[in-house]
């Protein structure tokens, strides 16, 4: 890795080049990164940047980079793959084309894309070609968005495609063949190919692009979007560059490899210490790892530094929802509402707030709005499904979950939601399919295995053996709520396997003791354990002597305590009789005879 | 028609260029009252043809996208010319149409056009029909179509008009051969793209709609679209326009029907691509996912089928009503969802894949949810599906599988069979009360099948014991079969008039038209008869295909039942009825079954030579179909012949092949497995490995007993008797034969009973001369049945046994009445030579030689002895003729 100054220089020129080509989103991302570099050599620009922090962006949506303004410098193309290769600024060539370019760029900035393309129709410089193609692409995208609304027929909106794609593909592929294509046009070509459905070719074109010009974050994130599996990611032939680390971290995060992602981010944080983007990503990963407290601290800090931030704030709202922080969530909702109410994230945050308040109808309204703004907003579909479930509108809930699954078939939450909905409708056998799908995607999540176990265990199915297998999986997956152990013990005792049942009851007790918890489960376990003492003692006599019986004795006392303090009335009588037996046993100690007091 | 139009155009029509072209054509058909010049139709029939053509175009469901202008013109020409020579009028009309269409170049033109279109609808009150003016009745089909178009246009936004206009340009340009950009070629030869695999997929998109089936005439549809790149202003890509929702639904239903009937003959990938394309064009048409499920199901792709099934029901919530008759009115307010049908489908899917346990779980849950949601019709269908499952897949115990609601409430667990009967009766009762006619017929057939193979025992085994006759009751079978055929007559009566023919007539009409266009020879051939081309050989069928299929199934079941009861002529006639009358609506697997029965009949009565010729024809006919029946039949015939010829190695090989055909899951394909085991035992018997043969037969008997296959048990017991007879243990053989006899009597298996009786006679004979009288009596008993209905082999066996009895009888003297034994022997030898059954033929000739010897007719004795020797030699050197069979395998 080069020195921090070289990073700065790279980023500075990249920002200018990207901005000059109207790739504003990538330029914004680079800018945020630039001011995020550790201040060992303070520079006026960096400090100025720090004073007015712009919102850091993880470009969620590909069209985002369309709507920002930029500078009008002209830079030469950087040399490919240079790790320390700081692209040196090259003066604008003085030709007629430059003026046209300036005009085209102004048109572009005013969102008159077709006009911009028209102005550049005779220009042959690489930059002009890129801007012309890019403008055409965006014009097509704009038209596509309009047509999507116009063409909504009785059979749903048919998939409108960008009308410029064919034309662009033809031109760009010809350029690529003749070798006269630069990294930016390659990036555009990659997008065009992806839109046309040629994903593997798009992947290789984008790899070419980032290898020759690594500072274009948009290209990286497009590439990330194409890496739907780890295999694809591993098969990419990427040159080493520090931008690759950002890409990998992001890709790991999207592939749910949170620990790997965190490691990468921690490493990057060493260089870009003040990067909001990295912080937000770390917080998101921590949230996904259910490390709520740490994530919350980071999010709070982010908001303090950058009060007008909307990106990643939906994750923060999810976190607050999970922690049931009513007032914080309402504050957040208020804040984003004032910043930009027509962002999908904002709508989602507001919806989350209403959901937390139990106002599900209102919540659905805001989720709908979020989805109107971005039809592919995955988590909004899933969350809306949850709301419909609360409203007992199961078909709508199923529809919402299903749409989430269709957008991303690897979204285990939506699969789980589908399963839960069907289970709620008393269709455990049908629900099993969905739980199976979700457990397949997230095999380490105990909740999914427990849900599956509950289906098998349910009254209509009564497939206890299968249920036991599921609970055993859950117990191995760090089951926080401790349902699995208890159920395992119970099922084993139902099936008459007292040996295993005792084992699991004991484990459950140990867990509860370790977590300092009490409850009816504990009483059940305590009642069961002495009952099995007899057969166990027969097998291994020494186990039931002094030490073991002291433990049991202590438990009896605990039961006694609980029965009389917490008034578990139905257990009272049993406890009393046990206690009587205990008294008798005390006289004969240490050779306790437990067979007198069965539960 | 009112109903049809209500259903057809209830949603507002989305205006497409094709519809505008139709509107133009309708204008020619029924010009506006104040039209300046009349359209010079050549004849009234030409005018009518145009009307019929337009009617068909607005209703046909032969595709989901609308035809291009080119296709429309081709069709129109065919209709207009109608077999006659060049017609200037049609050409003029086409030219006029294209020029009028391309004249629509501004939004205002469209407004004016629709303004004018109003003129052709006659005002409802004015009905003066003077001066041959043809008014369009506003409530007629075409009238409604025009009104819908006008309405759709009037609510169109300006953006919509703009789209329509650019679509019109693309539509008109598609006929222009000069259209097409030079860069198009440059694009196509792009080497970078062509390297990539995806590019080929892209290219395939243009011809992926060409899907064709090879499943007979009704399925022979092929549709291709000419895709032209047209980029008039903003680069409109290849334009294809969806038909109206109702037409797409009709198309999908038709495809589903074809899929179910001709499973396996569909090209999986092409159809899948078509469906994917349709799904892209109409994402809210969830029915497409159901079709994808069906396609996966019939191509045995379990995982995809499961995914698509769940996907379909997640989106549709079971509200699309695939099961006709599920007619719960939509509850106003909150949509409830009818997920019980999802469970029903899931159960059916598992049944098809042979997952009996999962299927039962799913169906049980379906029953529960149907009850919970008061969905009676779904409940009825579920019960029927459950019966189907129980009768198809062997399940030894039902404990813990079906909910307690089906036990008798007395704690007595029901056997699977009893449970099946209870379910069948309940399902039938429900279906009757809900007036689900097809289901009633289906249930009756299932009941007939049940009565055929199961003794109807009382469910409760306590209380005053009436004398119980433990026999099946053929009259029950007959009754159910007869009742199931009432389905047809019910469809004839007006009580159950068809809901809607769904445009099938129009679809068929257009398809025939297409065929006519594609094959000019038939076009010329039909020249003489104007009437034929007018009808395009299509008649509207008053009975839907599914009903006909059910009605046909009853004939097939009749054939099967007669097969069991042992009446060969009735089997043959019923199979013939099925193959001739119901072939059009039959599924390929059922039709092939009928063919199998006919071929089997041939083999048994005419020998193998004829049977194999027929088999070859059948194989050709069902070449594309998953030909399990035909396949099985071929193995059966090969095995039988190999056994007769003494080619034991070949027989063993065929046996092994047969075993592979069956699924590996226990309880599935039981009949096939039984068949394979029986044949194995017979092969071992022929190889004189008696103990092994007996072991196979015994274990098979246990298996069949476990799964309640008692009819098969009769055969197995007889086989055991044969094994012991051949091994020389006649006493043991007798006990098996008697057991078999009682099974035969219980299930009324008359022919098998005769065969068993014959075996008993043979067993008695082998016990010594003293039992000849008894044996002779038994043989005489069986003769009427065997000579009436038995095949060549059985008849020969009876003849030989008859002769043997006489020869053993001390009171019979050959010299007194030689013809008494010689005639049956001649008959037997002839039959056995046809069958190439060397072993028995040798026996017949041996006996003949002995008789001739006793008579002192030396010459004939030598001839018989020579024949005997030939057969023995052939039996001992069986390998010669087996090459072609080896190749056949």
Automatic annotation (TrEMBL), chain A:
Keywords: Cell cycle, Cell division, Membrane, Mitosis, Repeat, TPR repeat, Transmembrane, Transmembrane helix, Ubl conjugation pathway
An example Gene Ontology biological process: anaphase-promoting complex-dependent catabolic process
InterPro entries documented for this protein: APC8, TPR-like_helical_dom_sf, TPR_rpt
Segments crossing the lipid bilayer: 550-569
Region (Disordered): 42-91
Segments forming domain Cdc23: 7-283
TPR repeat intervals: 378-411, 412-445
Identification of the protein by name: Cdc23 domain-containing protein
Source organism (scientific name): Spirodela intermedia
Automatic annotation (TrEMBL), chain B:
GO biological process: anaphase-promoting complex-dependent catabolic process; cell division; positive regulation of mitotic metaphase/anaphase transition; protein K11-linked ubiquitination
Entry keyword set: Cell cycle, Cell division, Mitosis, TPR repeat, Ubl conjugation pathway
Each TPR repeat, start to end: 340-373
Span of domain Anaphase-promoting complex subunit: 290-392
Transmembrane segments: none
GO CC annotation: anaphase-promoting complex
InterPro entries named among the record's database cross-references: Apc5, Apc5_dom, TPR_rpt
Family to which the UniProt record says this protein belongs: Belongs to the APC5 family.
Protein known as: Anaphase-promoting complex subunit 5
């Amino acid at each position: 890795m080069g020195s921090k100054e070289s990073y700065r220089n790279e980023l500075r020129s990249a920002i200018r080049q990207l901005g000059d080509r109207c790739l504003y989103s990538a330029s914004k991302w680079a800018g945020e990164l630039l001011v995020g570099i550790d201040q060992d050599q303070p520079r006026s620009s960096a400090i100025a940047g720090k004073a007015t922090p712009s919102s850091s962006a993880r470009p969620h949506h590909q069209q985002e980079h369309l709507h920002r303004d930029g500078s009008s410098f002209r830079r030469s193309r950087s040399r490919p793959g240079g790790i320390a290769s700081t692209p040196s600024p090259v003066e604008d060539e003085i030709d007629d084309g430059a003026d046209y370019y300036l005009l085209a760029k102004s048109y572009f900035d005013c969102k008159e894309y077709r006009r911009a393309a028209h102005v550049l129709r005779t220009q042959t410089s690489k930059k002009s070609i890129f801007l012309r193609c890019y403008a055409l692409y965006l014009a097509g995208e704009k038209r596509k968005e309009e047509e999507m609304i116009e063409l909504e027929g009785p059979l749903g909106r048919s998939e409108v495609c960008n009308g410029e794609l064919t034309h662009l593909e033809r031109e760009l592929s010809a350029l690529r063949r003749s070798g006269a294509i630069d990294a930016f046009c390659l990036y555009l070509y990659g997008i065009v190919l992806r839109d046309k459905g040629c994903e593997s070719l798009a992947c290789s074109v984008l790899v070419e692009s980032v290898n020759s010009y690594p500072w274009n974050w948009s290209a990286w994130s497009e590439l990330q979007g194409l890496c739907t599996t780890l295999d694809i990611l591993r098969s990419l032939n990427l040159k080493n560059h520090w931008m690759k680390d950002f890409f990998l971290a992001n890709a790991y995060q999207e592939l749910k490899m949170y620990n790997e992602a965190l490691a990468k981010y921690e490493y990057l944080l060493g260089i870009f210490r003040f990067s909001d983007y990295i912080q937000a990503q770390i917080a998101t990963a921590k949230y996904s790892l259910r490390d709520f407290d740490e994530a919350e601290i980071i999010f709070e800090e982010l908001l303090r530094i950058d009060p007008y931030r909307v990106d990643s704030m939906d994750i923060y709202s999810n976190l607050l929802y999970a922690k049931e922080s009513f007032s914080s969530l309402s504050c957040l909702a208020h804040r984003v509402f004032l910043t930009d109410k027509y962002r999908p994230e904002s709508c989602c945050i507001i919806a989350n707030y209403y959901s937390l308040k139990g106002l599900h109808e209102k919540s659905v309204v805001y989720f709908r709005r979020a989805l109107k703004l971005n039809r592919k907003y995955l988590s909004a579909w899933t969350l809306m499904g949850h709301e419909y479930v609360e409203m007992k509108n199961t078909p709508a809930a199923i529809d919402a979950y299903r749409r989430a699954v269709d957008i991303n078939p690897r979204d285990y939450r939506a699969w789980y939601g589908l399963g839960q909905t069907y289970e709620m409708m008393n269709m455990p056998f049908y629900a099993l399919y969905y739980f199976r799908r979700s457990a397949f995607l997230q095999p380490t999540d105990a909740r999914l295995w427990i849900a599956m176990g509950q289906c098998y265990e349910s009254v209509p199915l009564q497939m206890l053996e299968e249920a036991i297998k599921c609970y055993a999986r859950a117990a191995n997956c760090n089951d926080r709520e401790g349902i699995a152990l208890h159920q395992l013990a119970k099922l084993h005792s139902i099936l008459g396997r007292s040996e295993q049942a005792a084992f699991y009851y004991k484990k459950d007790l140990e867990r509860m003791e370790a977590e300092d918890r009490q409850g009816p489960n504990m009483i059940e376990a305590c009642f069961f354990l002495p009952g099995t003492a007899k057969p166990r003692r027969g097998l291994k006599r020494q186990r039931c002597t002094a030490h073991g019986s002291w433990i049991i004795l202590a438990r009896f006392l605990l039961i006694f305590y609980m029965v009389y303090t917490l008034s578990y009335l139905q257990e009272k009588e049993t406890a009393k009789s046990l206690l009587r037996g205990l008294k008798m046993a005390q006289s004969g100690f240490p050779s306790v005879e437990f067979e007198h007091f069965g539960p | 028609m009112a109903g049809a139009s209500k259903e057809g155009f209830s949603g507002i029509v989305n205006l497409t260029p094709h519809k505008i072209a139709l509107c133009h054509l309708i204008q020619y058909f029924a010009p506006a009252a104040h039209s300046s010049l009349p359209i010079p139709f050549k004849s009234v029939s030409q005018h009518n043809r145009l009307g019929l053509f337009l009617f068909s175009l607005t209703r046909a469901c032969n595709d989901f996208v609308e035809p291009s202008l080119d296709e429309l013109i081709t069709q129109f020409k065919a209709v207009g010319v109608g077999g006659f020579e060049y017609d200037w009028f049609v050409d003029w009309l086409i030219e006029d149409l294209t020029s009028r269409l391309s004249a629509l170049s501004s939004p205002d033109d469209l407004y004016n056009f629709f303004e004018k279109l109003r003129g052709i609808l006659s005002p409802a009150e004015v009905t003066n029909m003077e001066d041959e003016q043809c008014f369009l009745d506003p409530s007629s089909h075409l009238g409604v179509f025009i009104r819908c178009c006008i309405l759709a246009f009037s609510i169109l936004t300006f953006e919509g008009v703009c789209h329509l206009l650019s679509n019109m340009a693309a539509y008109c340009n598609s006929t222009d051969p000069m259209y097409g950009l030079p860069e198009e070629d440059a694009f196509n030869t792009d080497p970078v793209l062509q390297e990539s695999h995806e590019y080929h997929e892209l290219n395939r998109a243009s011809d992926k709609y060409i899907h064709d089936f090879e499943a007979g005439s009704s399925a022979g549809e092929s549709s291709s679209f000419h895709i032209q790149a047209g980029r008039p202003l903003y680069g409109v890509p290849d334009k294809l326009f969806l038909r109206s929702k109702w037409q797409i639904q009709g198309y999908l239903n038709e495809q589903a029907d074809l899929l179910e009937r001709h499973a396996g003959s569909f090209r999986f990938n092409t159809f899948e691509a078509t469906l994917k394309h349709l799904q892209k064009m109409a994402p809210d048409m969830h029915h497409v996912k159901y079709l994808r499920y069906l396609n996966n199901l019939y191509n045995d792709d379990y995982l995809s089928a499961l995914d698509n099934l769940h996907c379909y029901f997640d989106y549709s919530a079971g509200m699309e009503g695939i099961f006709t008759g599920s007619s719960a009115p939509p509850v106003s307010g909150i949509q409830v969802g009818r997920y019980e049908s999802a469970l029903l489908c899931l159960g059916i899917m598992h049944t098809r894949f042979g997952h009996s346990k999962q299927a039962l779980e799913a169906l049980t849950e379906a029953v529960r949810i149907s009850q919970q949601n008061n969905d009676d019709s779904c409940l009825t269908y579920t019960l029927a599906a459950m019966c189907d499952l129980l009768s198809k897949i062997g399940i030894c115990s039902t404990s813990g599988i079906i909910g307690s609601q089906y036990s008798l409430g007395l704690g007595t667990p029901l056997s699977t069979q009893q449970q099946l009967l209870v379910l069948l009766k309940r399902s039938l009762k429900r279906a009757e009360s809900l007036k689900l006619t097809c289901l009633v017929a289906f249930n009756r057939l299932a009941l007939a099948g049940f009565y055929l193979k199961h003794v109807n025992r009382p469910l409760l085994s306590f209380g005053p014991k009436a004398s119980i006759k433990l026999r099946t009751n053929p009259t029950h079978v007959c009754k159910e079969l007869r009742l199931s055929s009432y389905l047809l007559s019910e469809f004839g009566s007006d009580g159950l008039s068809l809901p809607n023919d769904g445009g099938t007539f129009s679809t068929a009409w257009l398809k025939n038209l297409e065929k006519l266009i594609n094959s000019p020879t038939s076009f010329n051939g039909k020249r003489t008869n104007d009437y034929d081309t007018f009808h395009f050989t299509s008649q509207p069928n008053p009975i839907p295909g599914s009903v006909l299929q059910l009605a046909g199934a009853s004939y097939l079941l009749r054939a099967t039942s007669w097969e069991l009861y042992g009446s060969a002529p009735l089997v043959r006639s019923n199979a013939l009825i099925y193959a001739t009358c119901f072939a059009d609506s039959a599924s390929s697997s059922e039709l092939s079954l009928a063919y199998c029965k006919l071929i089997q009949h041939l083999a048994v009565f005419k020998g193998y030579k004829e049977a194999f010729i027929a088999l070859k024809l059948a194989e050709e006919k069902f070449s594309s179909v998953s030909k399990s029946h035909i396949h099985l039949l071929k193995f059966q015939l090969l095995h039988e012949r190999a056994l007769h010829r003494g080619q034991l190695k070949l027989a063993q090989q065929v046996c092994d092949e047969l075993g592979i055909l069956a699924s590996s899951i226990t309880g599935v394909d039981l009949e096939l497995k039984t068949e394979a085991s029986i044949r194995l035992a017979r092969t071992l018997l022929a190889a004189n490995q008696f103990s092994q043969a007996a072991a196979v037969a015994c274990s098979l008997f246990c298996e069949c007993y476990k799964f309640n296959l008692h009819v098969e048990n009769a055969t197995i017991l007889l086989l055991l008797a044969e094994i012991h007879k051949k091994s020389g243990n006649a006493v043991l053989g007798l006990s098996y034969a008697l057991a078999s006899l009682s099974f035969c009597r219980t299930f009324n298996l008359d022919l098998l009973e005769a065969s068993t009786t014959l075996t008993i006679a043979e067993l008695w004979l082998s016990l010594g001369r003293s039992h000849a009288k008894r044996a002779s009596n038994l043989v005489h008993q069986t003769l009427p049945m065997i000579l009436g209905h038995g095949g060549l082999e059985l008849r020969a066996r009876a003849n030989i046994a008859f002769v043997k009895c006489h020869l053993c009888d001390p009171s019979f003297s050959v010299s007194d009445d030689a013809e008494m034994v010689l005639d049956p022997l001649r008959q037997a030898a002839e039959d056995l030579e046809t069958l190439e059954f060397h072993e028995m033929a040798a026996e017949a000739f041996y006996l003949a030689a002995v008789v001739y010897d006793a008579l002192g007719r030396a010459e004939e004795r030598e001839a018989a002895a020579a024949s005997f020797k030939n057969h023995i030699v052939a039996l001992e050197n069986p390998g010669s003729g087996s090459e072609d069979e080896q190749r056949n395998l």
